[in-house]
């Protein structure tokens, strides 16, 4: 039954030989790898405005210079990543680059930061996608839909998880349509908005319920600007995706990947600046009453709330779901790398029925669903946790590149050091700014979790290393054949199920068989002994007393003593076990056999064997 | 660690030889067996008033004649139960009397009804006890305590459950003090109340927040009177306790038990009528705002809210907790009877460390806690479910007695038939009244659950009968010794843990040993084969292909085919299993071994053996 449900949900198993890697053209690759990066324009401007709003409407104008600063940072980081793409044509994620060039600990720090960020990518993107839908619904007469934001978000997480468990092929078409629809919608909105503002002047957005804007609030100072800047840095999340996925490009892989990265950053910068400009021109601000997104406010202000607005909102929601989907490729892959290197449990590196890393997908789904529930699908509340991890990984990855240039000294390594050094320096500065300004708003959780994760990775690694050393055949010698075999049959009563067990014990240990019975009720014991005489096949019986009615302790005591008799034998404990015809009928029988087996598992030198007697009905 | 926690909570194990039965004097027996019955006056009057209130204050006066009717019924039932006590000196609960005289199904119906009622006894009594405490707190300046009613009730259930898991001796002293304190308090309140009312006239209760009394409401008619009567019948719950516990009395058991029953019913009737009279005289009514109990209102009105009031409230709370405690003796005992007769899983008839039926106690605790949570510790809301089961058991038990008189025709059997016949008839009528009037208020749940429970009892019985028939040695013949032994060793890689398994397999099956390996990764397989040649000790190796990366299905297929080779052998599947030094490290290793064992358990003719290799650290 469980199997059938699984088949229905995730489909029939796929044979290993069908594993293949589709090579992507630049146009498709842009769609596949850029949804995470591009979709961040759906919340980055809003995140900046949400901070500036604390100082009242006077500060909102700062959004433009801040956005320009972020755009410059974006270009530096992109330029820096082009170096990584060239150096790692087989894919250079933060974990790989940092571990290879800086050592285990920086690699694990990058890995921990990235794992956390992938979980946040899902939670943030899905929540923002739901916000796009509820904003649309609010303007189209269904303002009540926002009450179901958490349920909608959980539904999308379930959907994306299932799709990934089935194994979505990263085939271009599915990704291309929403991504290019989103780019088209955004560029249309920005160009039409700018032109019509220029001709007719801009009109402020109308609100169903005016947002609360403090007349005076926090002072406009460096701290506020830094906080707003940090908030906007979420626009940079996802730009490392192309460097992870170089092998998926057509030949020449590195060159095509670099070109795609340049295109992506160009489009991203354009959209981010355009949206921030329009938000300022149309007075779009986060609205805590209607929960309408800033992009929805702009789109509605530019195009009215007709079909073009509808198109933009749906495209936004779709690209955000795709962005979450990107994390479903990244998280299980990174987890499988860590698992392969024995920093995570083995289970993360085994491919499931459908060739995907099922355990990684499930873990990502569960953690992101918990985040969505905890933060009530409010992406603006989630954002302070986001981006810190990304910048830690940026910094480590770029520093790793600097180290690599110094080590390999390939052609043009001085220029490479300059580029990656600038990238590493800037991202390090931004990382500190992010950590400090967002610390009390939630970033402390991430900064606490990363070292804990690193400790966990190390502990797991130590355990696996330990086990493999102990299991190593290096200095092992072939064991001598067994000289003697003793068997103890545990008997709870005289019935048909006991006979095969006795026969089996006699077969493996011939005359060295003893049966053991625990006396829990003297009357029953007397009757048992009589029947035993009749059916025992000559096996001697030991009856143990149990003053505390426990089966386990007298049995274990006896077995330990019995085992001590010979030093050169192996002791097999034989349990007669009758197997009911239906699995649920197991519940109706004492689970003592299981308890005995568990207790004996941790005692050395005993082998436990269940001899089953199958009931017919 | 788990063991230590258990020791701390429930104490050291007690040896079987310490099992003993204390014989109780009449005075102590009254305390031990009557807490359930006597404590019901704490809510029975309130239950009547809660129904009458629906018709406005005009109907409240009907409480007196209704209470008199219930008192008469009480006496008839008590008189009827004296017959049961005489006929069953070893204890005659509803299940035993009905099953012995009317057959299995009526017995099981009585058992199902009683099990449900025991759970309700705990939920109702604990909730009412908490209401006594929160009423006290409300009048002593802590009205906020009623917000924590559910938490308090769950705490008491936990406390009583733990006390019973430790094994409370039914020693008189613990029971005598609160029971006699309660009787003393109630009788003092009633006599002082009546006398002072007679001398000074009665004054209505003052309320912190006046209760809502509809001016006109439902029509005062037969339906309302019947519903109020049904509500008051909760006063009869628990009076069967003495007939269950006859063997605990001093000799002559039956005579002493009968006398105690008469005393108990006398005190109960007196208290019930007195409280109902005073409630009417002082205008005490259920108050949905303050949640103050009617008894608390009366006590406060009679004595003021000083120390005597405090004493009465605490005594009420204590006797209600004791009443819940009674169910903790009854439920596990009845469950053990049912389990002994194979109508419930065996686990209910095994005594735990502390000589108590631990599983019954745990089941009762869990179910009553769920009820308390679901009904938010509101005993008045729980009452419509209560008492229906009791009256079903009364009717079946009294009918059983009639049948017994007809069958045995002992001395005075005609008188016996008259008494039990009247009892059976009256309780049957009340049962119908209860079922009809309370049906839509919750009794339908009970009336649905009882047949479901009976079906479950029967299914369990059929299963156990089935198993014992199949395991019977009646027509069994001694099995021939095993002629041939084959062994298959499942190998996942070449390491130290494999060597003991190979050696073991060779010891039990000498030359008939085959090793099996599943090829999941061709490169790994090649390396494995090389190392195998070096270490295999001459055991032939079979490598299985697995196109879907599943370990299980190719293994199972191979084992089935391999087993078919010989018909006169037994096949042992040997699993090398390495045991980590710490139990939690199990999580870091694939659970494949467990899966294989489970899958093989349901396949006939295979014996599965794990040969452990213990890691040192």
Question: Can you characterise this structure?
Answer:
- 2 copies of one chain form a homodimer.
- By secondary structure, chain A is of the alpha/beta class.
- The first copy, chain A, has 2 domains: 23-461, Up-down Bundle (Amino acid/polyamine transporter I), CATH 1.20.1740.10; 484-614, HUPs (Rossmann fold).
- Chain A contains 22 helices and 5 strands.
- Chain A has helices at 2-10, 26-39, 41-52, 63-87, 94-102, 104-139, 149-166, 172-200, 222-232, 241-244, 253-281, 294-303, 307-340, 358-374, 379-382, 388-408, 413-438, 443-471, 498-509, 522-535, 552-563, 592-601; strands at residues 484-490, 513-519, 541-545, 569-579, 606-614.
- The first copy, chain A, has a 5-stranded parallel sheet, with helices on both faces.
- In chain A, strand 1, helix 19 (498-509) and strand 2 form a beta-alpha-beta unit.
- Chain A is elongated.
- The two termini of chain A are 20 Å apart.
- The interface between A and B is large, with 73 and 73 residues.
